[in-house]
Every structure is written in C-alpha cells, then in structure tokens.
Amino acid sequence: MFRNFPMISRVVYGRGSFDQIDEILAERRRPGRDSVVFVVDDVFDGAPLADRVPVRDGDVLLWANVDVEPKTSYVDEMTDLARAAAGDEPAGIVGIGGGSVMDLAKAISLMLTNPGSSADYQGWDLIGHAAVYHVGIPTLSGTGAEVSRTAVLTGPDKKLGLNSDHTVFDQVVLDPDLIADAPDRQRFYTGMDCFIHCVESLEGTYLNAFSEAYGSKALDLCREVFLGERTPESDEKLMMASFFGGMSIAYSQVGVAHATSYGLSYVLGLKHGEGNCVAFNHLEEFYPEGVEEFHRMAELAGVDLPTGVTGGLSDSEMERMMDVSLGMAPLWENALGPDWREHMPRDRLRALYERM
Ligand code: NAD
Ligand code: ZN
Predict the structure, then answer these.
(1) 356 residues of the chain, pLDDT tens digit each
(2) Which ligand 1 atom lies nearest to the CA of residue 151?
(3) Under a CB-based contact definition with an 8 Å cutoff, are residues 204 and 252 in contact?
(4) Separation between Cα atoms, residue 135 and residue 146, nearest integer Å
C-alpha cells in the first residue's frame, strides 16, 4: 500500500510571522467556542516572547515543562487543565516550543476529543475523532515535528507516538527569529536530528523520488548550516531543512541511529537529539560518509559528544534496550532490507551498544 498522508493545511513562513498569530486565530473563534489554549515552553516564562503571545480575555496560557520529554501522564494532566479552563472544545490549541512542546500540543488537541488516557492511543491510527484545531510554532528546528503525523510520547510501557491523520497540525507558523537564541549545544543536537533524518532516509531501502527530493534539499541545507559560517540566513535554512527532512521521512523511514537511539532514550532517559548523536557517532559501518561529515560538524560546533553512556548498564537493562531497539522493525528494514534480522543478530547489536 502506498502512503496517503494528509499535509498541514496552512503554513506561514517568514521573520516576524509570529505576530500574525492573533489574526490567524481570530478566524477560528466562534461564539461559545472562542477560547484558545496556548501551550508554551516554560523556558520562555519571563522572556520577551512571552509578552508577544496574543492571549485574549478568556484564553488560557499553560506553561509546559519539557525537562523530560513528554509522558502520557503529563499529556493527560495538561488536557485536564485545558478542559477545566476552556471546555471540551476550545477554538484552538497552539503549541510554542521545540519538538516536545509541539508534540504535547498535538496530543492535547487529540485528547480533548478522544476519551480515556493518551496511553490508550500510542500506536498507529487508533484515534477515532478529529482533534481540536491545532497550531504548531517551532522554537527549535530539526525534529520535523512541525510536519509529522505523530506525537511522540513515553507511556507506562513504551515510547511510541500517537500516529494518525488527525495528529497533523492544521496550521504551522515558521518564524526563523524564534530559533535564533537557542543554546548552541541544543541547536546542534536538534539540528543533527534533521541531518540524521536525511542520511537515514537517503541511504535507506525505502527511498523513492518523493523522499529523495525533500531529503537531498534538506541535507544540502544542513551542510550549509553546520559546515559553513553562521549567518542570519542560517536560521532560515535550518528551519526549512527541518521541514523538508520531516517530509522526506514521512514517505520513507529513519534507520539505525533512530532504532538504537530509542533504546538509549527508553533505558537511559537520553533525549531524542542527544541519543541520536550518541548513536550516530559510532555508525560508520552503516553510514560512512554521513558519520564522517557529522564528526566535522560536531567539531565545528565545538560539541564534545558523550561516550561510554552504556557502560554502567546491568545485563537486564542491556537486554531491555535491545528489545526496544529490535521492536522498531520498519526502521531496521529500511536500513538493512527485508532480511534485516539476519544482519542484526542480538550479539551484533549488543557490540554496537557497548561502543556507545
Ligand atoms: P525539546 O523540545 O525537547 O527542547 C529541548 C530543550 O530546549 C528544552 O529544555 C526546551 O525548553 C529548550 N528550548 C526550546 N526552544 C528553545 C529556544 N528557542 N531557546 C532556548 N531554549 C529552548 O527539543 P527538540 O529537540 O526540539 O525536540 C525533541 C522532542 O521532539 C522529543 O520529545 C522527541 O521525542 C520529539 N520528536 C518528535 C518528532 C515528531 O515527529 N513528532 C520527531 C522527532 C522528535
Ligand atoms: Zn529524529
């Protein structure tokens, strides 16, 4: 079966476009259904951006803390807060932040219209009812969460997204000014998520002309950003790279770095971008050119990559990590082909993890 995915209905792009949100939301407000819930990364609490969030009377601003990546319990808690303040069907949910806050906003918009806990919907196409109108506004670029049809959540027994057509944002606002002040290390980790999306998509067996077109453009942009001088245009390029990288993997798949990184996140709590970098650092046997370029990018960015992270793990933790990783069958299949299980026996995977 060929993929038949919805696209984001509307996209605004440009420096300063953040200030257009009030106007965009005004079109969505209806009598009796006029409040908007803003879900904003609490890193902006007290920052100038906070004063620019167009909160009108009757709207709600929820500060989101993403010191740990979103959990299903946190989504449920935030959904209750949103419902208590704005009713079952607010005019819209607006997520302002990195991949974590965008995923939170997507998940809240889904959980306002679907009963139970968000943990019940971790998987593919389990969502029955359309979400509340939802808007994504990235303040970090790289994850592609602004375009994807998933909201990645850690639940009681798995880290898995709410993957559905309803998850996709109705509106995205891409304002390169918003990513300008992100700390360098975070910018690197999240940016490398995009670089790795491109390499894994372009080197994968699922590649097709659609994914190739987006992925190769995104890869060029990543090279300009992370191998060249930083200029004001770098933020514009990085923002577009993230968007295109997300489009590329939507129609192909990621590969070995993501498959192993999910295990690192689950067992060690490493964040998505950092986990990918820890993994990709040792994947030259799969992606020789990509890893060589990645090393140059890390050096130019002055980022020392963590090593030895799996050193203190018990045998059962190592086994759990391998189970999580080997559970990502499509990622392995994309990377190594249909008989990937023969190419990636547990002892090979263990040796790979031991190097990290
Ligand atoms: P993030 O959203 O987890 O944020 C990382 C840190 O940067 C946080 O401390 C945050 O407060 C801070 N931050 C965000 N914007 C900032 C800014 N402009 N200035 C200063 N600090 C800022 O980081 P991320 O890498 O964008 O997202 C990772 C998350 O995205 C993970 O939860 C991962 O699971 C998810 N993800 C989702 C998808 C998807 O398709 N839905 C894809 C990849 C990753
Ligand atoms: Zn990723």
Answers:
(1) 889 999 999 999 999 999 999 999 999 999 989 999 999 999 999 999 999 999 999 999 999 999 999 999 999 999 999 999 999 889 999 999 999 999 999 999 999 999 999 999 999 999 999 999 999 999 999 999 999 999 999 999 888 899 999 999 999 999 999 999 999 999 999 999 999 999 999 999 999 999 999 999 999 999 999 999 999 899 999 999 999 999 999 999 999 999 999 999 999 999 999 999 999 999 999 999 999 999 999 999 999 999 999 999 999 999 999 999 999 999 999 999 999 999 999 999 999 999 99
(2) 41
(3) yes
(4) 9
Backbone angles phi, psi at 85, to 5 degrees: -90, -30
pTM above 0.85, yes or no: yes
Residues with CB under 6 A from ligand 1: 41, 43, 66, 69-70, 97-101, 103, 139-140, 142-145, 148, 150-152, 179, 181-183, 186, 190, 193, 271-273
Nearest atom (ligand 1) to Cα of 180: 18
Report how far Cα 59 is from the mean position of its chain's Cα atoms.
26
Phi, psi at 334, each rounded to 5°: -60, -40
